[in-house]
Write a structure and sequence with these properties.
Number of helices: 8
Largest sheet: 8 strands, mixed
CATH class of the largest domain: Alpha Beta
Distance between the termini: 56 Å
Number of domains: 2
Strand content: 25-35%
Shape: globular
Number of strands: 16
Bound molecules: 6-O-phosphono-alpha-D-fructofuranose
Oligomer: single chain
């Protein structure tokens, strides 16, 4: 039966079908993605039951970012590590919640990939039931690269080969790219599977919506302020949830531009490069959008130097990123 939108495809069967198109495919992706699928279904259960199980609220400790850890941050982090740890082709895990990578096995022992993730992005919104999410990036470690896991992950020969997020919102949505377009799945709780609902998702080229925390406008560099003045005069709407996964998901589906600029106190902005901006940029570009870290700087061309470095972000519809970039280049 030829592929039609009526076919029922699970995440697992979709990834296996995609891999069969590539004779050289080793099944590595389906092995890793099935672990991420299991982990995020488990996290989704915890998120839905958070208030009931009273795991909401602060653990009282702070993570490597100096941010107060929510209980569910820690739980989500442990769930992901316990699911990915059993995958024999993963060498290292990098989590927003941990300063150093978790080493699973050496490159010689088959650890050909690293998985970088923010286990529960936007978790401060949990108490008010706003959409939160898991963001992940799959990096293929460069063959022959030696040194510490951090060096191997940051080496130019290592490259991001898959990226995605799971949004725990009114439904649990899994959005994924393995470099051949963006596909979207929704968790059908009655069968316990992520079901394919949209193949080759494309972001609208233009939409008069910007997503930014305007409370900090006085601390933005001049170019961002002049862009906002122009947008106000040009009839733009503002949508800002304060949870990156939810803001990016809306931008991906409806169009617009998501911006987290540098500020006077944070010269590199707030968002982390390797496990927030990098995977989201791959998704946005694969959907036909743009992602820049500044005027004339494609975000994915920035060479990372630290696992937890931050980076300014302007990503979304190509026309809308162009508008922002025009003002940044004039400053
Ligand atoms: P602000 C959540 O804490 C987060 O890391 C992202 O999910 C979100 O986009 C951003 O911070 C919100 O930051 O400074 O606007 O509260």
């Amino acid at each position: 039966m030829p592929w039609t939108d009526d076919n029922l495809m699970s995440l697992q069967s979709h990834v296996l079908a995609e891999e069969r198109q590539y004779p050289g495919a080793t099944g590595d992706f389906s092995w890793i993605l099935s672990a991420i699928s299991l982990a995020t279904k488990t996290i989704g259960n915890k998120v839905r039951r958070a208030r009931i199980e009273d795991v909401i609220g602060e653990l009282g400790e702070t993570n490597v970012q100096g941010e107060t850890q929510q209980k569910l941050d820690v739980i989500a982090n442990e769930i992901i590590k316990s699911c990915l740890g059993s995958r024999a082709n993963i060498g290292a895990l990098v989590s927003e919640e941990e300063e150093t990578p978790t080493i699973l096995r050496s490159h010689e022992d088959g650890g050909r990939y690293a998985v970088l993730f923010d286990p529960l992005d936007g978790s401060s919104n949990l108490d008010v039931s706003v959409g939160v999410g898991t963001i992940f990036s799959v990096v293929r470690l460069g063959d022959g690269v030696k040194g510490t896991p951090e060096h191997m992950i940051l080496a130019p020969e290592s490259r991001q080969v898959a990226a995605g997020y799971v949004l725990y919102g009114s439904s649990t949505v899994f959005v994924l790219t393995t470099g051949r377009g963006v596909d979207m799945f929704v968790l059908d709780h009655s069968i316990g599977s992520f079901v394919l609902v949209k193949r080759d998702l494309k972001i609208p080229k233009t939409r008069k919506v910007y997503s930014i925390n305007e409370a900090y406008v006085d601390r933005f560099p001049d170019g961002y302020r002049r862009y906002l003045e122009w947008a106000h005069s040009d009839g733009y709407s503002s949508r800002y949830i304060g949870s990156m996964v939810a803001d990016i998901h809306r931008t991906l589906l409806k169009g617009g531009v998501f911006i987290y600029p540098p500020t006077v106190d944070h010269a590199e902005g707030k968002l982390r490069y390797l496990y927030e901006a990098m995977p989201m940029s791959m998704l946005i570009e694969q959907a036909g959008g743009r992602s820049i870290a500044g005027a004339g700087t494609r975000l994915l061309d920035v060479k990372p130097t630290d696992l937890h470095q931050r980076i300014p972000v302007v990503m979304g519809s190509s026309d809308e990123v162009d508008h922002v970039e025009r003002f940044l280049s004039e400053s």
